């Protein structure tokens, strides 16, 4: 008899508790755990001076034969990428690039782009990532803003011509055309001839501080000319901790067609892959008609997007093979509710969507961890209280 009473009391208590404890509390606890783990992982790297160049070398030792980068029909393992970075770093040294020098990079997305960024970080130089669509005065404005001592120009006649056109306006900048490796005097052929071995101690700066500038990334310039945002080594490492929020794992294969001169393509994809030790498929230019066949070819599991990209994908003619892929998550920002629903209806409900918003120049961001339409930026009462203390600590 008394057992029955106790049983009823417990049941009533449970119902009351379920009713009293709001659903958001569990989501908040999950979210807090993720924030703490991202912060801890970032702190550890910052404390140990692990710049992206060092993280790449660590991966090269840890997973030498694992593919870091797929690009068209080329593949680069972590070890091959690290060796290429040594070649590029030696070639930059031979041009006179050293610690604290400003180097500007004007190039389309390709493996060499990443190798130059890593090499610049390895040498403690500061690299300005110039929007490859800029020409004329916005181009020379950007180069002047980062006070470029050196300008590396990709192997493409459009880029070369655009630089020739503004040459008189940047008299203090040494212009280096990457050119083609068949040209004996080009930068690329210097790179090919350079040693892939680890740099000698005397060339490796030992005093790179995590608060030193790693790169300059330009905001899209919604108001007037583009503005350069200074990104320290610590900041780029911390931004790439977004991999924790999107639940990236070493087995993932990311796909990005976003330009490397912005935070999303460079940090939230290519540097995340170094951070977590997974692979990334790089595409020079987004193509809606090739996206799905690319994803099948490389067995992509995570797709990076900006809102419009998914809209273009959804406006492709439907195919019976639309659900035939291994994408488990799409992450990025700017997906409208109508596109969101269309996208998962058509390409499969197994695709989770992680929407977040953060500005390159900002110190905080919003994320939709619920994988449901319309939650980005929503806040529970508890998170509203806590967010101030977090804003102050990050
Ligand atoms: C450089 O550009 C030329 C002309 O577009 C092309 O034929 C060549 O393959 C390119 N070289 C490299 C290494 O990308
Ligand atoms: C080879 O490269 C140099 C500079 O890198 C350039 O001035 C020259 O025009 C190039 N030669 C050819 C044949 O493309
Ligand atoms: C990190 O670099 C700074 C600046 O060079 C140095 O003072 C500090 O001792 C380094 N910390 C570690 C753990 O190597
Ligand atoms: C690092 O050390 C070099 C010489 O060893 C020195 O010239 C340079 O100013 C130092 N840089 C920083 C940021 O401390």
TrEMBL record:
Pfam families: AMP-binding
The keyword Transcription appears for this protein: no
Protein name, as recorded: Long-chain-fatty-acid--CoA ligase
Classification via InterPro entries: AMP-binding_CS, AMP-dep_synth/lig_dom, ANL_N_sf
GO biological process entries: lipid metabolic process
Taxonomy, superkingdom: Eukaryota
Taxonomic path: Eukaryota, Metazoa, Chordata, Tunicata, Ascidiacea
Coiled-coil features, chain-numbered ranges: none
Record-annotated AMP-dependent synthetase/ligase domain positions: 59-379
């Amino acid at each position: 008899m008394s057992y029955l009473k106790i049983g009823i009391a417990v049941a009533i208590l449970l119902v009351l508790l379920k009713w009293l404890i709001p659903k958001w509390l569990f989501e908040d606890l999950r979210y807090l755990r993720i924030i703490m783990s991202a912060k801890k992982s970032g702190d550890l790297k910052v404390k140990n001076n692990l710049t992206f160049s060092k993280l790449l070398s660590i991966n090269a030792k840890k997973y030498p034969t694992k593919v870091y980068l797929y690009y068209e029909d080329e593949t680069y393992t972590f070890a091959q990428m690290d060796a290429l970075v040594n070649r590029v770093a030696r070639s930059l040294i031979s041009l006179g690039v050293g610690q604290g020098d400003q180097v500007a990079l004007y190039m389309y997305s390709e493996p060499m782009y990443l190798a130059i960024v890593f090499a610049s970080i390895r040498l403690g130089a500061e690299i300005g990532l110039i929007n490859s669509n800029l020409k004329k005065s916005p181009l020379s404005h950007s180069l002047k803003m980062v006070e470029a001592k050196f300008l590396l120009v990709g192997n493409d006649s459009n880029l070369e011509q655009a630089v020739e056109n503004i040459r008189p306006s940047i008299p203090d900048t040494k212009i280096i055309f990457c050119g083609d490796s068949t040209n004996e005097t080009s930068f690329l052929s210097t790179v090919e001839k350079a040693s892939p071995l680890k740099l000698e101690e005397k060339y490796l700066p030992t005093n790179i501080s995590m608060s030193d500038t790693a790169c300059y990334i330009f905001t899209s310039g919604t108001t007037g000319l583009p503005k350069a945002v200074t990104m320290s080594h610590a900041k780029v490492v911390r931004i790439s901790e977004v991999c924790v929020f999107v639940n990236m794992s070493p087995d993932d294969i990311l796909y990005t067609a976003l330009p490397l001169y912005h935070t999303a393509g460079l940090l939230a994809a290519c540097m995340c892959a170094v951070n977590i030790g997974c692979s990334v498929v790089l595409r020079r230019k987004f193509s809606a008609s090739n996206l799905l066949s690319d994803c099948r070819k490389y067995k992509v599991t995570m797709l990076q997007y900006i809102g419009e990209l998914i809209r273009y994908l959804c406006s492709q003619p439907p195919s019976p093979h639309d659900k035939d892929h291994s994408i488990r998550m799409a992450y990025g920002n700017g997906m409208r509710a109508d596109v969101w629903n269309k996208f998962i209806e058509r390409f499969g409900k197994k695709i989770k969507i992680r929407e977040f918003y953060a500005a390159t120049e900002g110190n905080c961001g919003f994320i939709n961890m619920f994988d449901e339409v319309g939650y980005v930026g929503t806040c529970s009462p508890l998170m509203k209280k806590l967010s101030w203390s977090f804003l102050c600590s990050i």
